[in-house]
C-alpha cells in the first residue's frame, strides 16, 4: 500500500467544507488566549448549541454584467416603476455620451433660469431676518449719530456712572498667598523630567495600568511668548485670498461663483452712515474679487461705485464706474449710473458716449433729454432718438408730454401733428397700438391740465381695434369709464367723436345730454341740445330737456320758442303739449294753458290731455266745466281709472256722497285692478261711519287683487282707526304671511308694537327687508329717535334718503328731526 493511498484513507470528510456557524478554532481544547470579545461575541459554554445548526447556503458568484433587477417594494414608484437603469447591459457609446451632455446642459440652463428668483427669495428672507434680529450696533446707530449734536459743555456735564455693585462685591477680600509645600514642587519636577528606572510597583503590575487624566499631562506646553496679532491678521487675509483664488476655474478662467449671489449678499452688507468700517472693507474686498474674476459683469462695477459713494469717496466711485463703462460698453445700466454720478457737463459727455455705443437704448435717450434744460434741446434729442428708434412707444409718449408744455405756451397746432406722426410711425414699424393704455395716457394729460393733448389722443386712438358693429357700445363704455375716473374732457371728446360718426343716434345724444347735465355747464348742455334736435327732430325728450333748461334758467320766452319748434317737428305729440301746458301753468298763465289744452284736445285727444284739462278747471274752481269735461272723458276713455277717481272726488267735495259712491262703483266695474280706486271707495264708507262696509270693500278688493300690500295696510289702519287693536294685530299677522317681503307692512308692524318689543320686531324686519326705505325710516323713528340716540338716528335717516331720494316721508321726518336735534 502506497503512502498516497494511506493519506486518502485518513482524509476527513469535512476537509474543504465551510465551517459551521459560531465555530472558533481551538475552542474545544481550551486555546482561547489569543481571542477577544470582538472575535467571538458574547461568551458561551462549550456545550452550548448554536442557534443555527446549518451553515448558510453558498451564494452563487455572479458577474458584474449579470446584475439582477431589484424588485423590492422599496425600489418601486407608482409613476416611474422599479428603479434602476433599463439599459444597464447595453454598451455606453458616443451617442449616449452626447445625450448625457445635452441633458446636463438643459439642467444647467433651467438652473440658471431659477437662480435669479431663488436669489431674490433668499435676499428677501435674509433682509426680513436681519430686520427682525438687528445687531446691537444697528439698534444704537441712530443714537450714535445724535452724539454729533452734543456740545462740549453737555458732554462735560454728563454725570458719572454710579457703582451698582453690592457691598460685598465693592469691598472684595484681600488676596491671600499660601506657600507651596516642597512635595508639590518635587512632584511637578518629577512629572516634567525623564526616568530611567522602573519602580517596584511597575515591575509587579506590568506597567499597563497607568491612570488616565489624573497625572498625565494633556497636550504640549503653551509657549509663554506674546501673541503677534498683526501676523494673525496677515495670515487671515492670505487665507481669504487663497480661497477666492481657488473658486476660479483654472481651465477657462471664468468664476464658478455666481456674481449675482455675491451681489445679493453684498446688498445687505452695504454700510449706512455710522456703520462699522470692517463691513466696508469686507464689501470692498468681495467686490474687488468679483470684478477681477468677471470684469464683464456690469452689476459688479455698479455696486462698487455705489459702495464708494456711500462711504463718501465720490472720485473713486467715478473712476470705478468709468472703468466699468470701458469694460462693459454695451450695458445701459453702467452708462446711466455713470451719468448719475458725474456732474453737469461731464454727465452730458458720458451720455454722448453711451449714445454712440448704444444707439437703440431708449433709457439712454430719455436720460440725454432729461439732462437738457431747454425745450428746444429736448426736442432735438427726441427727434434724433425717434429717427434711431421709430417703434418706441415710450419715446413717442415722452415727445407728446413735451408737447404738453408747448400747449401751455399756446402752441396747440403742433399737438395733433405730433400725435398723428407718432401713431403713423408706430404702425409703419409694426407696433401694436394699445388703445386702453393711450386712453389712460389721455386721462393723465387731463389731470396735468393739457386739455387739447388729451382730446387729440382720444380722437387719434378711439377707433383703433374696434369692429364697426361694436363701436357704439364700446365708445359708450369708454365714456362712462372716463367719467368714473373724473376725466370729463376725455369723456366729452369720446361723445363728440361718437356723435360725429353716428349723428342720428338718439341714445348717444341722450347720454351726452345727461353727461353735460351732470358734469357740464348750462351753456354746454343747451348747445349740445340745439345740435341734438337739429339731427334728431323727432326725439321729444331732447326738445323737452332744452325747454326745461331754459325754464329753470328763468328764460320763459326761450322755452316757449323751443316748444313752438317742437310743435312744428311733432305736431301731435302729447308730451310736448303737456310740457307747454305745464310751462304756462307754472308761470300763472292759466288762460294760455287753457287755450293750449283746448288745441290739444282738438289735435291730439288723449286720456292724459283730458285729465290735465279737467284738473286745470278743477283747480281754477270751474266745477261746471270740469263736470262737462268729465262726462265727455269717461265716454271716450272708460278704462282710465284716474278719470273715475277725479269724478268721485269732485262729487265728494260737493258733499254728494251718493254720486261719489256711484262714480266709484262704476269705475271699479271698469277698472277692478285700480288699487287707489278701491282705497277711495273704502275711505268714503269709513267717513260715512260704515266701518263694516269699508271692511267688506277691502276684503273684496283683496280677493280681486291678491298679495297686494297696500290693501292689507289699509285694512290694518281701518281697524286701528276704529279702535280694534286685536283685529288689527290679527290682520297684520295674516298680511305678513301673504306679503313677507313688504317694507310698508313691516314698518307699520314696528309702529304697532309696544315700545319694549319694537327693537325685536325691527330686527325681524331688517332680516326680511334689509334695504327697504320704509323699514329703515321706521327704525330711525321708533328705535333710535325715540331712544334719544341722536347720532345713530341721523346716520339711519341719511341711509334712508340715500336709498330712496324720492320718498317724501323720509325727507319730512329727517327735516323734523334736524329741527329738534340739529344745529345751524
Automatic annotation (TrEMBL):
All copies of domain PRP1 splicing factor N-terminal, residue ranges: 19-167
Keywords: Coiled coil, mRNA processing, mRNA splicing, Nucleus, Phosphoprotein, Repeat, Spliceosome
Major site of localization recorded for this protein: nucleus
Entry-linked Pfam families: PRP1_N (PF06424), TPR_16 (PF13432), TPR_19 (PF14559)
Start-end of Acidic residues biased regions: 64-76
GO CC annotations, alphabetized: catalytic step 2 spliceosome; nuclear speck; U4/U6 x U5 tri-snRNP complex
Ranges in a coiled coil: 103-146
Gene Ontology process terms (BP): spliceosomal tri-snRNP complex assembly
Residue span of region Disordered: 34-78
Compositional bias ranges of the Basic and acidic residues kind: 42-55
Entry superkingdom: Eukaryota
Record localization: Nucleus speckle; Nucleus, Nucleoplasm
Function: Involved in pre-mRNA splicing as component of the U4/U6-U5 tri-snRNP complex, one of the building blocks of the spliceosome. Enhances dihydrotestosterone-induced transactivation activity of AR, as well as dexamethasone-induced transactivation activity of NR3C1, but does not affect estrogen-induced transactivation.
Identification of the protein by name: Pre-mRNA-processing factor 6
